[in-house]
Amino acid sequence: MTQHLIHGGLPADMTRYRLKLLLQQARVALGLSSGALKYLEFAIDNCQPSDFQQGRICAIWHSLERLAVLLGLSKRQITRIEAELVGAGLIKRTYPERKSRSGERVDGVIKRAAGINLAPLIERAEYIRFLVSRQMLAHEDRKQLCEHIQGLFRQIRDLDNADADEAATCILPRRRPTELSDIKKMQEVAEALEAVLADFSAVILSAEPMQRRAQPPEVDPVLLAAVGRAGNNLNQIARAMNTDRKAGRAIDLIVVRTLLMTLDRQLAEIVAEHSR
Questions:
Q1: Which is nearest to 82 in space by CA: 66, 103, 67, 72?
Q2: How many CB atoms lie within 10 A of CB 27?
Q3: Radius of gyration of the chain from Cα atoms?
């Protein structure tokens, strides 16, 4: 008996071509083989745009033999890929076991499909986009951490202290944070370098004679007020995170990251406005 699996449609701002791009970007996060990705791209291309609309059936019903020819693979490989995608919750087989695949399209609309149904993939489209967004944020975090480590090496070098320089080199001999693939390891390196910088800066300062501190320049009160508001927002974020942590609630790092990026942008706009 044919299963008529309809779906809720792709998100309003997502086309099937966008879905293909997201799958390419999230392949590793989804744990898919390159063959499974190739299969999904073929399936998406062989459905019509209207098949991705809410309440429609989105499916293909090519035989194993035909798929093998079109994808340049063996029947055994196709069977293995389909099992992988079923296990990943991205497709569903809707044909009786040991029966041939078939389907019917009337006036451009699939009326029945005993084959491979893409409803599970379409229903997970938003989740796949989330995976890509999280991946992009992680990449941005790693990039900023690399820049921070490089900056610490420069500051340590500027101390002009051989012992400090040697201590920094022991932490990361080649001084190339881009060679570190584990972000946790990068954080450990950054913390170690920060400790080296703090320790040797204190030693150097203690050896220097005290100098009269210059008077700070006058600052526009409007600028101070704007920065103060931003500081209050940062304190509120920190208090909310601390409250959630004490209550045992999970902290949504994506939301926190978004708030901090918004706050950073606001501060940049404030500084730019008062630098004119």
A1: 67
A2: 17
A3: 28
Q: Return d(Cα 231, Cα 229) in angstroms, integer.
A: 5
> What pLDDT shows up at residue 78?
96
Q: What pLDDT score does 1 carry? A: 36
Cβ neighbors of 80 (< 8 A, separation 6 or more) are 35
| Residue 164 main-chain phi, psi, to 5 deg | -65, -40
Q: How far is the first Cα of the chain from the last one, in angstroms, to the nearest whole number?
A: 72
Please say whether the dihedral angle defined by the alpha carbons of residues 107, 98, 5 and 58, taken in this order, is positive or negative: negative
- Non-local (6+) Cβ contacts of 54 within 8 A are 7, 8, 9
Q: Which CATH number fits domain 6-129: 1.10.10.10, 1.10.287.130, 3.40.1380.20, 3.40.50.670?
A: 1.10.10.10
Token digits for 184?
């946790």
How many other β-carbons are positioned within 10 Å of the β-carbon of residue 8?
A: 12
Residues in the chain where the model's pLDDT stays below 50: 1-3, 210
Query: Given this model, what pLDDT does residue 211 score?
Result: 54
Strand partners, 113: 103
Q: Where are the domains of the chain?
A: 6-129, 135-205, 221-233+240-274
